[in-house]
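Action item from last meeting closed. Structure (423 res):
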């Protein structure tokens, strides 16, 4: 590694997310993005098979999104969103609400997925308090992941990601993971005993992402939504990962025909170009914050709330969700299903699964979980063959941008097949 090259300079000054720097292989230098591809020095090309942490939906450096960002940056870069407003924020809110599940009526902007979750949790707790019947219990599911800030960590599964902070996390009532047949009976018992204390339940509709792309069925989501609604418990859908077409329809809740009280969005919201979070709420939730007493307001905001450039990027991205995009997603799903059925023949491939543009399998090993070394070596193996992959412990997944061509996606599976042959 040259001392003046980018990885060496990085090693002196940067601290990377979710990275044990000790013994870490140097990071991959990337200069530009082009559709499904990332390009490094010497024209080294990598197919982004993980959509850069699940954010890139239409492809990298999309010209329409780049143009919208440029135009907005030259017109109005930023303005305080307490007391001021602007076309990108209002227009995006209108356009989002037209496409979100019915019932959602208000858009609250924040910065990323974790802050979208924090806002939803605060809205849920204060909603009940403002209505004069405080409820303090949050319900969450085993294996959940909702982000890295403290509220989001509190409702996430307790485990290796949260161990260092466990004494600081607030208590949450936990129900079995959604794939567990014990979930609905446990929910019934919980609602029977403590229904009137529970403020909200938070779920990742149909796919628990960071848990290892654990997929669950629409009927369970529909049943869960019906049960909590009858007890006045708010349903928070964390669609930070599943939103914007990842599972097929624009939002995963659509599979179950469920309309949550609160929905959290980020990642694909701007097409993966800029950070932006959204928490959408029903009018009923919003109305609980209205009143002559200023103390019933939601005291939450970030310096960059509703940043005009990010909102403009999100509007440009949303406009790209047309029939062509839906076709691209259907094609990717068909290729996933075809290729996964081939990979399923390898004895080490366990529980192959596909939903929309997401495909995953577990790699059989004595160790499971995030710290498993089962898939160790896959990232380097893929990079050598021009594919960017990043397994979640023993779980290997493929989640490409929607512009990925069928033959490019098949290339990713060829690399996975070769890895399974040789390891
Ligand atoms: N919720 C879910 C379901 C997620 O997958 C993630 C990120 N992987 C988050 C929340 C947190 O989003 P962010 O990383 O943008 O804070």
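Sequence:
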């Amino acid at each position: 590694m040259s001392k003046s090259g980018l990885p060496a300079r990085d090693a002196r000054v940067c601290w990377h997310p979710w990275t044990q720097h000790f013994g870490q292989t140097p990071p991959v230098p990337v200069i530009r993005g082009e559709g499904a591809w990332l390009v490094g020095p010497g024209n080294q090309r990598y197919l982004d098979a993980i959509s850069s942490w699940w954010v890139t939906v239409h492809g990298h450096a999309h010209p329409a999104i780049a143009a919208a960002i440029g135009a907005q940056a030259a017109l109005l870069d930023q303005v305080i969103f307490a007391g001021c407003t602007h076309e990108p924020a209002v227009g995006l809110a209108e356009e989002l609400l037209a496409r979100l599940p019915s019932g959602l009526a208000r858009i609250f902007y924040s910065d990323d997925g974790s802050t979208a979750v924090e806002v939803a949790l605060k809205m849920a707790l204060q909603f009940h308090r403002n209505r004069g019947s405080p409820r303090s219990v949050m319900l969450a599911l085993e294996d959940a992941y909702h982000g890295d800030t403290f509220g989001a960590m509190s409702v996430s599964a307790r485990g290796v990601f949260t161990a260092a902070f466990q004494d600081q996390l607030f208590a949450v009532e936990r129900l079995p993971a959604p794939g567990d047949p014990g979930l609905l009976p446990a929910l019934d018992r919980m609602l029977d005993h403590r229904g009137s204390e529970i403020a909200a339940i938070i779920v990742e509709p149909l796919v628990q992402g960071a848990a290892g792309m654990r997929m669950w069925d629409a009927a369970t989501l529909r049943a869960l939504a019906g049960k909590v609604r009858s007890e006045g418990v708010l349903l928070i859908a964390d669609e930070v990962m599943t939103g914007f077409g990842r599972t097929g329809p624009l939002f995963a809740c659509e599979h179950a025909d469920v309309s949550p009280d609160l929905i959290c969005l980020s990642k694909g919201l701007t097409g993966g170009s800029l950070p932006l979070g959204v928490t959408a709420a029903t009018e009923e939730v919003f109305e609980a914050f209205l009143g002559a007493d200023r103390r019933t307001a939601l005291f939450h905001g970030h310096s960059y709330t509703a940043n005009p450039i990010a909102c403009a990027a999100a509007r440009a991205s949303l406009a790209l969700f047309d029939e062509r995009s839906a076709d691209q997603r259907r094609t990717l799903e068909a290729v996933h299903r075809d290729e996964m059925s081939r990979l399923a023949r390898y004895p080490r491939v366990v529980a192959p699964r596909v939903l929309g543009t997401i495909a995953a399998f577990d790699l059989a090993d004595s160790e499971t979980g995030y710290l498993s070394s089962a898939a160790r070596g896959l990232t380097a193996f893929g990079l050598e063959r021009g594919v960017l992959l990043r397994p979640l412990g023993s779980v290997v997944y493929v989640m490409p941008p929607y512009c990925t061509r069928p033959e490019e996606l098949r290339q990713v599976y060829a690399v996975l097949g070769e890895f399974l042959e040789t390891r």
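Note appended to the action item: The radius of gyration is 22 Å.
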